[in-house]
Each structure stands twice: as structure tokens, then as C-alpha cells.
Design goal:
heterodimer, A: mainly beta, five-stranded antiparallel β-sheet, 11 strands, globular, B: mainly beta, seven-stranded mixed β-sheet
Chain lengths: ~110, ~110
């Protein structure tokens, strides 16, 4: 089967840095995406890694290691508005599910 | 550009009733998807389409049907609603699969 594991909850202080890890077991793995979802809202795309290494987009960075089947999302200079759920999602070229989502990590940013 | 729109936003059904959810996108994307999201869960793919006139089953297709008669529209039908189909339904579209754009969601309750 295909599965992704990520922590269910993370709490961090405003202004700090937080890392959300994701390990995956996916046949036909092609790349790893990250999405943010605020309560009551729709998921929004944050980043995508097809190759090993770090991708940086402003305060957010995402990392992928194919050999370790592992990735992470790094959020810097945390703001209260970053409190949300974050989902990793594996893009697959095989099977009947082209994009498999993890169950999400709920990030709470505290003052 | 409106992006991805979904109608209706809310709906309450009785067990056994049928309904159709409409998704429309104005980004000329080939790929379109229907997901459901339940509390504490990630998004699970119901059906998807890789182009006009094509559909494919996702992870949880039972009890749902879809049609993609026009490139910009993707319809999700519930033939005979069951309480287990109470969920939030998200439609998404994508140019290549890695970055998906989500609609605002439809909150469906089946009594």
C-alpha cells in the first residue's frame, strides 16, 4: 500500500523555527508536495520537491531525501497566522491514487 | 480568474437521496480531482480525471460516480446517499499533478 507518516501535533513559539517531518512508503514515487490548511478552509499548495535537496520559498523551505523516503517542511520566523494543519502528499506514477496525502500535522503557534 | 469553484457550499440530505456536486475551473487544467476529508484525516481521493472525457477511480470510489463532459467541469454524483458519506468534499485541479488548486469545499451531511 501507500502511506505517509507525519506527527499529529506540533507546538512552537512565535518567531521560532519548526520542522515538520514526513516519511513515506509509496510505490512509483515521483515527488513530495506540502499543503497548508487553515480551519474551515481549503488546502493551499506550499511547495514541491521532485529532486533530493532543499527548496526555499520565503519563510518556508522543504527538503526531500529519496534514499531515506523522508522529507520535511521548515517554517522560519513563525507567525500566529501560521497556525494551521500541514499535509505532506506523495505524487505517484503507479496505482490508482496519483496523490496520497498524510493525515496532517496541526501546528499551534503560541506567544 | 475565479480559480476553482464548487457548488453547493452546504447540503443536507436524507439517506437514500441523490445529488450532484459541481466543480468548475477556469485555469485550463487537464487534471481534476474529487477528495473527501473527514475529521482527523487527510484528504482521500474519490475519483479523478486526466482530461476531458476521461475518469478514473481513486482510493475510495464506492458510492460515487463522476463525469467530465467539458474540460472545465467535473461532476461528482452520489447515487444513494448514506450517513457514511457525511464529509467535506474538495475538488481540485492541476496542470501537471504536483501543484493542485483546491476549491472552497462542500460540507455534506447525510441524515
Amino acid at each position: 500500500g501507500q502511506s505517509l507518516e507525519q506527527p499529529s501535533e506540533v507546538t512552537a513559539v512565535e518567531g521560532a523555527i519548526v520542522q515538520i517531518n514526513c516519511t513515506y512508503q509509496t510505490s512509483g514515487f515521483y515527488g513530495l508536495s506540502w499543503y497548508q490548511q487553515h480551519d474551515g478552509g481549503a488546502p493551499t499548495f506550499l511547495s514541491y520537491n521532485a529532486l533530493d535537496g532543499l527548496e526555499e520559498t520565503g519563510r518556508f523551505s522543504s527538503f526531500l531525501s529519496r534514499s531515506d523516503s523522508y522529507g520535511y517542511l521548515l517554517l522560519q520566523e513563525l507567525q500566529m497566522k501560521d497556525s494551521a494543519s500541514y499535509f505532506c502528499a506523495a505524487l505517484s506514477l503507479s496505482g490508482n491514487t496519483p496523490l496520497v496525502f498524510g493525515k496532517g500535522t496541526r501546528l499551534s503557534v503560541i506567544a | 480568474n475565479a480559480g476553482v469553484t464548487q457548488t453547493p457550499k452546504f447540503r443536507v440530505l436524507k439517506t437514500g437521496q441523490s445529488m450532484t456536486l459541481l466543480c468548475a475551473q477556469d485555469m485550463n487544467h487537464e487534471y481534476m480531482y474529487w477528495y473527501r476529508q473527514d475529521p482527523g484525516m487527510g484528504l482521500r481521493l474519490i475519483h479523478y480525471s486526466v482530461g476531458e472525457g476521461t475518469t478514473a477511480k481513486g482510493e475510495v470510489p464506492d458510492g460515487y460516480n463522476v463525469s467530465r463532459l467539458k474540460k472545465q467541469n467535473f461532476l461528482l454524483g452520489l447515487e444513494s446517499a448514506a450517513p457514511s458519506q457525511t464529509s467535506v468534499y474538495f475538488c481540485a485541479s492541476s496542470y501537471s499533478g504536483d501543484e493542485q488548486f483546491f476549491g472552497p469545499g462542500t460540507r455534506l451531511t447525510v441524515l
